[in-house]
Prior knowledge:
It is a single chain. By secondary structure, the chain is of the alpha+beta class. The chain folds into two domains: 9-196 and 349-412, FAD/NAD(P)-binding domain (3-Layer(bba) Sandwich), CATH 3.50.50; 201-343, no CATH class. 35% of the residues lie in helices and 22% in strands. It has helices at 16-26, 43-48, 61-66, 72-81, 84-93, 114-126, 180-186, 207-213, 255-265, 280-287, 296-304, 308-317, 320-323, 326-334, 389-412; strands at residues 9-12, 32-35, 56-57, 98-100, 105-108, 130-132, 136-140, 146-150, 153-157, 162-164, 191-197, 201-202, 217-226, 232-241, 245-247, 268-273, 336-340, 342-343, 351-356, 373-375. A hairpin with a 4-residue loop joins strand 4 and strand 5 (105-108). The longest helix has 24 residues, at 389-412. The radius of gyration is 25 Å and the shape is elongated. The termini are close together. The model has no long low-confidence stretch (mean pLDDT 96). Bound molecules: flavin-adenine dinucleotide (FAD). The site of flavin-adenine dinucleotide (FAD) has 39 residues, from helix 1, helix 2, strand 7 and helix 15. Flavin-adenine dinucleotide (FAD) is lined by residues 12-18, 35-38, 41, 43-45, 47-48, 53-54, 136-137, 165-167, 171, 175-177, 179-180, 350-351, 377-378, 386, 388, 390-391, 394.
Amino acid sequence: MPITTSLPVAIIGGGPAGLMAAEVISQQGIAVDLYDAMPSVGRKFLMAGKSGLNITHADALPDFLQRYGESRTHIEPLLQAFTPQQLRDWVHALGINTFVGSSGRVFPEEMKAAPLLRRWLHRLRTQGVRFHMRHQWLGFANDGTLRFMTPNGETTMRSAATVLALGGGSWARLGSTGAWVDILTAQGIPITPLKPANCGFEVNWSDHMQSRHAGQPVKSVMVAFTDQHGTRQEKQGEFVISRYGIEGSLIYPFASAIVRLIEQHGSATLYLDLLPDLDTAQIIAKLSQPRGKRSLSEHLRRTLGISGIKTALIYETTDKTTLNNPQQLAQTLKALPVTCQRPRPMDEAISTSGGIAFDALDQYLMLKQQPGTFCAGEMLDWDAPTGGYLLTACIASGYVAGQGVVEWMKKNS
Ligand SMILES: Cc1cc2nc3c(=O)[nH]c(=O)nc-3n(C[C@H](O)[C@H](O)[C@H](O)COP(=O)(O)OP(=O)(O)OC[C@H]3O[C@@H](n4cnc5c(N)ncnc54)[C@H](O)[C@@H]3O)c2cc1C
């Protein structure tokens, strides 16, 4: 039976979470008005596509769920409702093929977000979704109506139900300003403070390091450290030396843990194993070969294949005594310390952790203290590394919130 209501559903925020909620609700023939503060929707989604839109990951579901760490219990029901495989099928149904790239990352065939977004918006318009751009949500008026600032001044709207999908707190110029934190906090909704996640860290590099080596990748190294729970974390991969410090795929998965260590101790030291395929004894044996008149750099290159940025890192962090002692040097090559002083500003982060506490939401992501208002996407209190896990959870949460609205409308229309 069609759901009849004189009022439309309001979706506020046109990122992937809000768009998916709009799709699920409008599919049921329910009128949907989608509001966004920006002149167009999906700006961060498009930015995510600039370097290749990693929409999801080919991990089996149990491995996939592990990536959400402490927020796994909250994300699991969302990914059970809309699985990573369903997400891939959904992309295919939009007429876009996907492929599995290196390390299981899933991309749309053209790598970009724009073709996918174009087709998605076309589908939504066909389903009757009305888009209202340059509508900045200011909060709820006393009578529960939605307040917006528009180019023509402030206005209010009534809705049968509302989905808030306002994003996290990074890349504010793309719309995700995090201004909703103050609005919802004032209403007594529990919110974990937003913090940078999937971000770079500042390191006190020398001028030489900054000017000669910024932008260079450090490949096939192992990074290790002890997290705030006393558990050793380690991973092999590559990262990039930047002018300010370090960034890249090897660092991002640990960003939240590194942020916590910095909060606790003032800084966090990571240990790099520059030669993960050799043990210390093997390195000592190689370093102990006669050096003759060769410089240490040349000796490292010939005996261990170390050169370029790795040599620069050794000179940057190691004193002379250690450099001249094969035993000590071997130990340093297996655990070269790099101290992170602070995360880069939140606005630069790929994503933010923190957000609306799951305890404040029911299983359909409806605010318990405000029936009829649902929340989705990065504005919820969860965290994941890059690799497609962010978009997958955002879209799945939009799906579940959309289903929640449909159920709510069935009961309340
Ligand atoms: C450079 C970069 C690369 C990324 N790459 C990937 C990747 O490859 N894979 C991946 O999984 N994730 C990636 N991400 C992360 C991913 O893009 C985000 O997690 C995702 O877009 C969040 O979706 P969302 O719908 O929750 O919020 P957003 O996409 O942030 O959308 C929120 C929307 O709400 C609107 N809004 C906010 N406040 C208001 C208000 N008060 N009134 C009205 N509208 C408002 C905004 O204008 C915006 O349109 C990347 C992020 C960045 C920055």
